Hints:
The chain has 9 helices and 11 strands. It is of the alpha/beta class. The model has no long low-confidence stretch (mean pLDDT 93).
Amino acid sequence: TDNAEAESGIIGPGSTTVIGETDPELQAILRAKAGADPVLRDNDFGVVSSQRAVGGKVFSLKTRLGSYDDVFLPLFGEHQELNAAVALQCAEEFLGQPLPDDAVREAFGKVSSPGRLELVGKQPLVILDGAHNAAGMEALATALTDEFPPGPKTIVFGCMKEKDPTELLLALNEVEVDQLIITAIDSPRALGTEQIRNAARKIGLADARICTAENPRAALDLATQDTDPDGQIVITGSLYLVGAAKGLLVG
């Protein structure tokens, strides 16, 4: 609620407010700031249907002024579809008319979100996700469960001092973690690997499934060595770690 109060401060008098949040308590805070007739997700606009597709999702949306069916979005995660619905409704409100169907398809078909459920390798599948808070980790866990093949995963993890590693790792509980590789991040704000190891123990991960690498390169080498070609490597916990890993993997 504190974040909702803070973020709602951007809403100015006379503005049109598109609200994507559906939690009743948080939505009430935003509506109070928005004044009359805010535009609400699942009431005025939203995702009508969605299904997995190669490289992303195919989904249909409704807005206040139109509808768009079977649009391809080359991103993973339900939250990305919801973000797309909000963005489309905002564009319509700004223009005051529906967008051309072909323009919507082209725009969404070209969208990218570097470091967010980004695929950078196959055999094993290598997934980058810069989730660095509990909500982001929960979204990652849901996407891994719903949109990727089942099975154990190697998690490469590092985070910053201001984060609670127990909270972050706990959000991954629904994911079948075969191995957790903890690595140091090249930043004075990085949390120590031993503190992260203690957090992993606290949530019940056995010592045999936890190891430490001195830097992201060593962590990636270890993950590749220990993960079957049909397995998955997930690199997460910090955008700093994801950025370093991406540099090593794709140049």
